[in-house]
Specification:
- The chain has a single domain (about 5-70), classed as lambda repressor-like DNA-binding domains (434 Repressor (Amino-terminal Domain)), CATH 1.10.260.
- The protein has 5 helices and no strands.
- The protein is mainly α.
- It starts with a helix and ends with a helix.
- About 65% of the residues lie in helices and about 0% in strands.
């Protein structure tokens, strides 16, 4: 898994846990299969999530897309 994807996934997990939302809940809230976030966070989802999916996740987690996608140098 590339560094960008690792950062994105760790931020999704951080804000999901901060908001006390389960992996299954978030998956269903974005209109995906109930195991989508579990697979994404576990590294079993091989493709990178689409921008549309990232936007949906950001909206539900009350964070900007910039925060999820920002790569600190």
């Amino acid at each position: 898994m590339n560094n960008y994807k690792n950062i994105l996934i760790s931020r999704i997990k951080y804000y999901r846990e901060l908001r006390n939302i389960s992996q299954e809940q978030l998956s269903l809230m974005i209109g995906r299969n109930k195991d989508f976030i579990k697979k994404l966070e576990g590294g079993f989802y091989k493709k990178e999530p689409t921008l549309d999916t990232i936007e949906k996740i950001a909206k539900i987690l009350f964070v900007s897309i910039d925060i999820l996608l920002r790569v600190d140098k």
